[in-house]
User: What shape does this take?
Amino acid sequence: MNRLFRFALIAIMISAVIAFVSPVEETAHAQNAITCEGDLVIVGGPYTNPYATNLYWIGGDGPGLPTPKVMVGTSLYITWTVKGPGTWSNLVMYWQRGAGGGVSSYAFHAGCAEVVPGCDSGIYLPDTAVGGTITDNAAVFAFPDPTQITGTVLEVGKTFWMDGLDSTGMYRQVLVSCEWVWVEAAKTGPNYDEVWNGHPLPSHTVN
Assistant: This one.
C-alpha cells in the first residue's frame, strides 16, 4: 500500500468517525436577512420526535439569538422571541439528538413580531394569514391529528386569523388565544366583514 493511498484511507476513516459521533446536523432551511423594528419571532415545527429529549437552537448572525431549548414530546412546536430592534441573517435551525436518530422535519419560520389585539406581546403572523370565520362548531387540535384534540370548541360565526392547511388538506391553522392551533378545514370559511370582504382563505401547505 503506497503512502498516498494510506493517507487518503486514514482521512476517509477520520471523516467517517467524526460524522458518526457528531450529534449535530444543519438544516437546509436557512433564512436570509430580516430587519425588525420590534422583536423577531422564530417558530419551528411541527417536529415528530421519537426520542425522550432533543436540543434545538438557532444559528446565524444578529443580536440576542435565543438560548437552546430542550424539548420533550412526540409532536411539538418551538417558539423563540428575540428582543429587537435588529437585523438577523443566515438563520438556521439546529438540533442535537437525544438517544440517536433524527426528527421528521426541520422546517421553521422567522419574522417580525406583530401585535395582535388581545395578545400581551408580539407573535409571528405570516404574510399569508387572513381573517376567516368558523362555519360550524369546530374542535381545536394541538396538531393536525385527530388524537390531538384539546377539548376547546370554537363557536360557529366566530372570526380568527387563519393560515394554510396541513399536508392532508383536512386541517387549517388558526390563531386562537395568541397561539397557532388547528381546526378541521371544512369548518372554516372566508370572513365577509367590511375589512376582509370574503377574501379567500389560504390554500398553501403549512410546514
In short: The longest helix spans residues 3-21. Helices lie at 3-21. The CA atoms of residues 61 and 89 lie 5 Å apart.
